[in-house]
Design brief:
The structure holds 2 protein chains of 2 kinds. Chain A is mainly alpha-helical. Chain A is built from 20 helices and 3 strands. A 3-stranded mixed sheet of chain A has the order 1-2-3, with no helix packed on it. In chain A, helix 4 runs antiparallel to helix 19 and helix 7 crosses helix 10. The mean pLDDT of chain A is 85. In chain B, helix 2 runs antiparallel to helix 3. By secondary structure, chain B is mainly α. The longest helix of chain B has 29 residues. In chain B, 0% of the residues are buried. Classes of the chains: A mainly alpha, B mainly alpha. At the A-B interface, helix 1 of A face helix 3 of B.
């Protein structure tokens, strides 16, 4: 791996995204002249017309950024490098992670184009915030330095605090934005405290240096250095666990997921979670073993992960709101992902299992939320189980999509969720944590109940007459749903390419 | 050795002199209060701004929030230019290009704020 100060060839995608942000900002600044320039003979309202304009502009930008990522790979010959004095890693397998996060952004965009008009959200502000958040996530998974890590984490989170509150006339949305902001700030405090303890213990902010000097066999366990190192690692873990919503740091999740605009909920539940997990993997599951401290970490991680799986899956059963149900299910899924690294084997396989699960989770959660967005109409939210009654008769396509999503979330073959769960449980079994594996497995049977319940309501209940109005301009939502469904099935039947990709991504984290 | 503190001493002398002069001029030329009620604000610690003791649950107009945000925009720009100016000559052209990029991004943000009517007191 080469060390360079700065080489734009490695960061083409990020630079492209930054350029897109500038273009969008200027387009928003001059939106009135632009609107008058392009306004043909359209029957749309000004807001809707602008939202579509902004949506397509952002979409073209995202496609160009995706192309730049692929071009970067060609330009650098797939070789990773460390840039800016040990601040950023770039290139190589990391490009896979960046592409996955960008794809999550593109799917969010496709789901948002119509939804923003329904909710009277000013589209271009929304897309700008989405771009900022994406740039933060892309930097976060590449960060090699704690300062860069913290900056990227905030760059990813702060736009999301604002996006959650974008349904300005809805008190629930305001409530969830404030809740997320306060708890997010609280978790950032923990993260910073952890970083400062680690700096105090090791005298370095470069992640690999910190981990090397904390490989505990080399230092005495009862020294202040080891104590503050251990405290630092624990606080760092707590800060990151807030972001991925592990129990007991999950309390914000259901309220925020329910109050936010549905595409934002989808984005939060996949992109934020995946990039935060990439950081957890880099620090806790990396190649550096913490010696005697490892057994404490096994206990801590295993306990949190198992409690998370149990809590998420049991509380989801009693939910009548589908968004809340999916929030609890996302808590449970975070628990499964954390279970894979709980044995602290420090192998690429464990990281590979988590990343595989996370990438599969992008497709299935996007599909589940996509169906809810597809069924949302003007003045009619599709959020509760009652709203889904008998939807299969009027919208068989959407119901079929929901079936695929629910089967995958529940882990039924041939969906990608099944392969992901096998990877996770293999990690536990290889580490001889049989009881943990059995409990987690039993709770994934519990999960079967509430996932299948959605399908029962959709297919076997009588529909309400007033909730079956057709709506126009569903094409982008269809594209997003079809793409995710295709990914779920294809990767479920032929998981090998995705396994290879997550292997490449995992190996660069080490 | 002690000679390098001479500027500090000069500063102290000039500052004391200036302040003393202003106080003296105030005493000579300012309006005189015959009784306490003539100038009530003369008896507060600071003769301008808000009162020292007041309810801290006072409502503040949301418009100040926007002003504060914009202040950060310009403040950041100003404060980063100082360290840049110190090292700019020794780094050379690279520093010049980098600060231009930085100012460009701030300018974009400024144009955004301006076009979205954030600079108008509404």
């Amino acid at each position: 791996m080469s060390e360079l100060f700065f080489d734009p060839a490695f960061l083409l995608g990020e630079l492209g995204l930054a350029a897109l942000i500038v273009v969008l900002t200027l387009a928003d600044a001059f939106r009135k002249p632009l609107y008058q320039l392009f306004n043909g003979t359209t029957q749309l309202s000004e807001l809707e017309y602008r939202n579509r304009q902004a949506g397509w502009l952002t979409g073209i930008g995202f496609v160009i950024v995706a192309a730049l990522f692929i071009y970067t790979n060609k330009l650098t010959g797939g070789e990773p490098a460390i840039l800016l004095h040990n601040s950023l890693k770039a290139g190589g397998g990391l490009l896979i992670g960046k592409l996955v996060i960008l794809i999550a952004g593109i799917l969010t965009l496709l789901l948002s184009i119509r939804y923003t008009s329904i909710e009277s959200i000013p589209g271009i502000d929304y897309y700008l915030l989405l771009c900022f958040s994406l740039l933060g996530a892309l930097t976060l998974i590449a960060a090699e330095n704690f300062i860069m890590l913290f900056l990227a984490l905030e760059m990813m989170s702060i736009p999301i605090y604002a996006m959650v509150g974008l349904k300005r006339y809805n008190p629930r949305s305001d409530e969830s934005a404030i809740k997320y902001l306060l708890l997010g700030g609280f978790s950032s405090g923990f993260l910073l405290l952890g970083i400062s303890f680690l700096y105090g213990a090791t005298g370095s902010l470069v992640i690999s240096d910190v981990l090397t000097s904390l490989s505990f066999p080399t230092i005495e366990l009862a020294t202040p250095q080891a104590l503050f190192g251990a405290l630092g690692l624990i606080f760092l873990f707590i800060g990151l666990a807030f972001k991925v919503s592990l129990v007991p740091f999950h309390a914000w999740t259901p309220d925020v997921y329910e109050g936010a605009a549905t595409p934002i909920t989808a984005f939060m539940s996949v992109a934020v979670k995946l990039s935060a997990f990439a950081v957890i993997l880099k620090i806790f599951a990396g190649s550096t073993s913490f010696g005697g401290f490892d057994s404490i970490l096994v206990g801590m991680l295993g306990f949190f992960a198992l409690i998370t799986v149990m809590y998420g899956n049991s509380v989801a059963i009693v939910q009548t709101n589908v968004k809340r149900m999916l929030a609890y299910s996302s808590i449970a899924h975070a628990g499964y992902m954390a279970l894979a690294i709980a044995p602290m084997t420090h192998t690429v396989d464990a990281a590979k299992a988590v990343l595989f699960y996370g990438i599969g989770y992008v497709a299935m959660n996007m599909l589940a939320f996509g169906v809810l967005i597809y069924l949302t109409r003007q003045n009619h939210y599709c959020e509760t189980l009652d709203d889904l009654k008998g939807v299969a008769r009027k919208f068989p396509g959407a119901a079929a999509m929901m079936t695929i999503a629910m089967f995958s979330l529940a882990g039924i073959p041939p969906a990608v969720g099944f392969v992901g769960k096998i990877q996770i449980f293999m990690q536990l079994i290889n580490a001889h944590m049989y009881i943990t594996a059995v409990i987690a497995l039993l709770f994934s049977f519990v999960a079967l109940y509430f996932y299948i319940n959605v399908l029962v309501v959709m297919y076997m209940k009588e529909p309400d007459t007033d909730k079956t109005i057709e709506s126009s301009h569903q094409f982008p939502v269809w594209v997003a749903m079809a793409a995710s469904a295709l990914l779920i099935i294809l990767l479920g039947i032929l998981p090998t390419p995705l396994l290879n990709w997550s292997q490449q991504w995992a190996s660069i984290l080490f | 050795m002690a000679g390098q503190y001479l500027p500090v001493l000069l500063l102290v002398i000039i500052a004391s002199f200036t302040v003393g002069l202003i106080l003296l001029l105030n005493a000579l030329l300012g309006p005189k209060a015959k009784q306490r009620n003539d100038f009530p604000s003369k008896y507060t610690p600071f003769e301008c701004g808000s009162d020292m003791l007041e309810d801290n649950n006072k409502r503040v107009s949301i418009r100040f929030y926007l002003i504060a945000l914009l202040f950060i925009l310009f403040d950041l720009e100003g404060i980063l230019l100082y360290p840049w100016a110190v090292v700019a000559r020794s780094i050379g052209t690279v520093a010049y290009i980098e600060i231009l990029i930085f100012i460009f991004f701030l300018a974009v943000a400024f144009i955004y704020a301006w076009r979205r009517n954030a600079l108008e007191w509404r």
